[in-house]
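Quick one: structure for this chain?
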Amino acid sequence: MTATRTVHLALQGGGAHGAFTWGVLDALLEDGRIGFEGLCGTSAGAMNAVVMAHGLLGGGRDGARAALRAFWLDVAAEGRIWSPVRPQPEILRWFGIDPAIGLAASHAAFEAFTRTFSPYQFNPFDFNPLRNVIQRHVDFEALSQPHCLKLFVCATNVRSGKVRIFDNAAMSADALLASACLPQLFRAVEIDGEAYWDGGYMGNPVLYPLFYRTTSSDIVVVHVNPIARDEVPRTPEAIANRVNEISFNSSLMREMRAIAFAARLVEEGWLRDEYRDRIRAMHMHSIRDDALMAELTLASKLSPDLAFLTTLHDYGREVARRWLAAHFDDLGVRSSVDVRAEFL
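Got it. Here's what it folds into:
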């Protein structure tokens, strides 16, 4: 099937919850009607973006789907060995223990440990199993080819607090590790003499490169962190989870508000004629299921359990299929999300 619409994808980070985005991408690639120009991503979103772009280079849509699947299966295999939160579900079930309870207990122990020791103390050799996974699945030199999708990966400069965007030319395993560097778990990633932490602190993901360095007019944001919740959290775990969600949505909320403000400037004629051409009208779209993702815990973001990851993948596929059925005809024509209502 020939693509009839071209979009940019903006992929949020959220640890293991990025398997939901894997499912979304799988469905979009399988559908075949949508082409892609730019991919921006943070943390797990960045890894999904880079693996997808690399897969497209070598094998088209089927190659990208296979590459994403192979990557996440490898993440599960490595995580089973190295993840700091890795209770074995089958063993817990054998003893009649709910795996969710085991996961929460394991995560609580990890949280207590990292409040006492930093990765500079418990990981003096800076071992990161994700590096081996990334290097097995991505040839970074290939990403600089002219026909590769435009990539924009976000990381946070530790010293300046500013965002750093790594494009195709600057892409590397270190860039991806920087974008996914949780400072409680890993030492800051050093690149060109600067130290970087997870990009989610400053952009989850950043959208502005898609405005200034691309031509397509549609941005599809794939959310993994719920924006809205119906209930006020009351337990320590629920409060920590909500704080995490708000923190890692804040930068995206700010950019969406800026987009809405710029659109209003144009629509209501507040700009001088000489400035109108400098603001490009963009159509915004969201693939999300807050109710579904709100059921997941903060601890599960560190879960490497294959059954959990593949279940999230399946959910992502279903949500993407529903979105395609409802909003494919909006692409290239209008926004399918009311940015002002959702983000102002």
